[in-house]
């Protein structure tokens, strides 16, 4: 999961509810000063939430973009039912499409630029591949995501979580996770109390069936890179210099297979959006400006 640098929303942003044909979704929304150059729609990853993008809201809005980050079905403040089928990848992609349509219908929204982080990259790819031309998105950014299953060590950890979910409550799993992570990272800086409290609260708000469905995709998802490469949509691949989920060299090869640039954010790991937000924002803005210029 992403470790957030802070939780305070900038003055340009607010927590909102997006009412779509697929239900309501909790979101953070930042408004630009003056006319919007476009809309950035940000999709979080496994065990993540809209708050993973807090540090991107202000720099992107100040550059003229309306920014919307949302909790997917089963995540944090969106919630969902108990049937695991509701969290299948095609269902999450339909949610994304409904949110896109809602935002695109707003006056002055400008083109909608899609960004998927980690598992959110799978959802974004699924939505793009399922859509008919003309596509409702002006571009796609894949951020710290992979072409298929997680790297084997991370896949094994995810499988342990999936095995525990049917028989353990989320609080117990959280305590075990904290103990294991503490033993593995004794030299890590302690989290600020408000960040630690938020991560705990967010974890407990997950729908277990959503975690099961998303985890299954992460350890067994088919590689659909060639299909995505055939879609006529401007794309960019972004990663940190290291990544526990998908090796950076694998991400670089995936970008090459897609025929797009791979940009590495210096000093970042799996979550450049939270770890190096200013640099990440600069990369995104340069790409979206090039799309508009083209």
Globular, elongated, flat, extended or rod-shaped: what is the shape? globular
CATH level-two architecture: 3-Layer(aba) Sandwich
Write down the CATH topology: Rossmann fold
**What is the H/E order?**
EEEHEHEHEHHHHHEHEHH
Number of domains: 1
Termini separation: 35 Å
Protein name: Pimeloyl-ACP methyl ester carboxylesterase
InterPro entries: AB_hydrolase, AB_hydrolase_1, AB_hydrolase_fold
GO molecular function: triacylglycerol lipase activity
Domain AB hydrolase-1: 41-282
Secondary structure: elements and pairs:
Layout: E1 13-20, E2 23-30, E3 38-43, H1 54-62, E4 65-70, H2 89-104, E5 112-117, H3 119-130, E6 139-143, H4 152-164, H5 170-184, H6 193-205, H7 208-220, H8 225-229, E7 235-240, H9 248-258, E8 262-265, H10 272-275, H11 277-293
Parallel strand pairs: 3-4, 3-5, 5-6, 6-7, 7-8
Antiparallel strand pairs: 1-2, 2-4
Care to describe what's here?
The mean pLDDT is 95. It contains 11 helices and 8 strands. The protein has one domain: Rossmann fold (3-Layer(aba) Sandwich). Strand 3, helix 1 and strand 4 (65-70) form a beta-alpha-beta unit. It has helices at 54-62, 89-104, 119-130, 152-164, 170-184, 193-205, 208-220, 225-229, 248-258, 272-275, 277-293; strands at residues 13-20, 23-30, 38-43, 65-70, 112-117, 139-143, 235-240, 262-265. Strands 1-2-4-3-5-6-7-8 form an 8-stranded mixed β-sheet, sandwiched between helices. With 294 residues, it is α/β, with parallel strands linked by helices.
């Amino acid at each position: 999961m992403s470790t957030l640098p802070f939780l305070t929303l900038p003055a340009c942003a607010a927590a909102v509810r997006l009412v779509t044909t697929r239900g309501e979704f909790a979101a953070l929304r930042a408004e630009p000063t003056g006319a919007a150059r476009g809309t950035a729609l940000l999709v979080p990853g496994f065990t993540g939430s809209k708050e993973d993008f807090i540090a991107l809201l202000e720099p992107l809005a100040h550059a003229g973009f309306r920014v919307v980050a949302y909790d997917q079905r089963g995540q944090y403040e969106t919630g969902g039912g108990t049937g695991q089928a509701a969290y299948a990848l095609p269902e999450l992609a339909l949610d994304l499409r409904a949110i896109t349509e809602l935002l695109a219908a707003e006056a002055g929204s400008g083109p909608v630029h899609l960004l998927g982080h980690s598992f959110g990259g799978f959802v974004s790819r699924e939505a793009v591949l399922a859509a008919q031309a003309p596509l409702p998105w002006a571009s796609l950014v894949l951020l710290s995501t992979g072409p298929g299953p997680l790297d084997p060590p991370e896949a094994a950890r995810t499988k342990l979580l999936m095995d525990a979910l049917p028989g353990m409550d989320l609080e117990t799993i959280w305590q075990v996770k904290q103990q294991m992570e503490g033993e593995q990272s004794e030299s890590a800086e302690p989290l600020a109390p408000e960040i630690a409290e938020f991560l705990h609260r967010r974890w407990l708000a997950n729908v277990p069936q959503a975690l099961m469905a998303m985890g299954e995709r992460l350890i067994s998802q088919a590689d659909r890179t060639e299909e995505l490469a055939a879609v006529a949509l401007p794309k960019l691949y972004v990663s940190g210099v290291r990544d526990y989920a998908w090796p950076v060299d694998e991400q670089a090869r995936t970008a090459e297979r897609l025929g797009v640039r791979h940009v590495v954010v210096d000093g970042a790991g799996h979550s450049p959006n939270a770890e190096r937000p200013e640099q990440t924002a600069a990369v995104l803005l340069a790409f979206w400006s090039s799309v508009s210029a083209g």
